[in-house]
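Hi W., the iron/sulfur cluster complex you wanted:
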Amino acid sequence: MSKESSGITIPTSWRVKRYYLFIIATLIALVLPWITVDGNHFFLLSFDKLKLHLAFIQFDMQELYLMPFLLMLMFLGIFGMTVVGGRVFCGWVCPQTVFRVIYRDLIETKILGLRKRIKNKQLEPDMSKTENKVKKVIAVLLWTALALVASADFMWFFVPPEDFFTYLANPTDHWTLFGTVIGLTLFLIYDIIFLKEDYCVYVCPYSRIQSVLYDEHTVMALYDMHRGGHIYDEQHNKQFTKQKDIQVEEPHAECTACESCVTVCPTHIDIRKGLQLECINCLECVDACTTVMGKLGKPSLVTWSSDYEIVDQKGKTQYFRTKVLAYIALLVGLMIILAMMGSTKEHMLLNINKETRLYSVKQMPDNKFRVENAYEFLLQNTESKKMKFYFEVIPPKGMEGKIIITKPSKEFTAVPGIKKKKIVVLRTEEMLVDDDRQDTIIPITIRAYAIGHEDKIVVFRKSTFVFPRSDIVRGTK
Ligand code: SF4
Ligand code: SF4
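Structure:
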């Protein structure tokens, strides 16, 4: 929603839009670990069960080659986002920013009134007052509870909630897990309450690499010094603190020197100095100036735009430029590779080894015979629940129905994660090949499937059936 002020339409503040995104991101992070489809999670990297769940498909650790693709996807996504929108990830999605907004703006300012206004993030509370000390303790306790939830939520992507709460009954048996949760909680308390935005400015490596990704079309919070006036000289020294002083040098300078854009800045910078590494693109300064200038019936001096448009005044920002298109192409390519890998995933593991004895032949009454080949099948149920399995033999054309499975004679149960060894015997009572000079190797296909899930949980393996020389079959040798 927008509102009118002195003839200028003031759009819904970026701050409110960010709050919506924070709420959505928080809900997704909290709810996603609880959603399962056929016992599979959207994302779960389980080290104790050696499984990776991705998009509700379960992969074994042997299939961890997917992880580098996921990491590439994540990093390319963040880099592409930076090329287009600067450090927008920091201001809009990063948990550090979300947690700081919850602690500083919601708990300390809105709930406890420890800070005066959300719009002044630089004015620290007066801690000499007893009332403020009590409020600070309450704020720390509230944040500790939330930090504990956030740490547990983070771990649910590695230990699913259903196991997490079972393990909670015996925490001493799972000290690594609960030690990690407590360690993360302590870190979040230190980080959010004491380190604050210094984490974004001095610790986070992303702030170091972002500047090399920028180009003249990258959008970020920018002060229009052509309209507002040059508050800082080229050496970044502040020249003016009052509008009338600016206007001595630049009579048309519009900046009122109210410093609303400075006091609202969570990283304590003055955007009028130009682009700075510390800017997390939260756009609070844009909102602040939009309000100030809106009251004067003018557009904001600080906008979310590019150097090309605002500083160099060359024209409109180009969003779909070569660099951006290259990132989009790479991301789409990676997603297609991941989707293809996911769709070709096999839902069970099966290894077939033929026994060292090639075959056995048994003479039967009425000139009949039986030829049998034995195999060792190693099967692993990679799903999350117990299932029944069986096999089917697919011989070459013309031999359909002539080779049958005699052992195992019926379906069998396999529990998840445990390799199951099965001796499988294939038999024929037909003269498949009438050759008295040599044995014949017949290519066959084994179809292994889960009962009730024949179209999804099924694998095909190539193998061979050795049929003896005809004199051996007839017993005339
Ligand atoms: S200058 Fe400060 S308030 Fe403005 S976008 Fe950057 S971090 Fe946010
Ligand atoms: S909020 Fe706008 S008018 Fe006020 S100091 Fe910042 S740029 Fe100038």
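The chain has two domains: 1-34+65-345, 348-474.

W.
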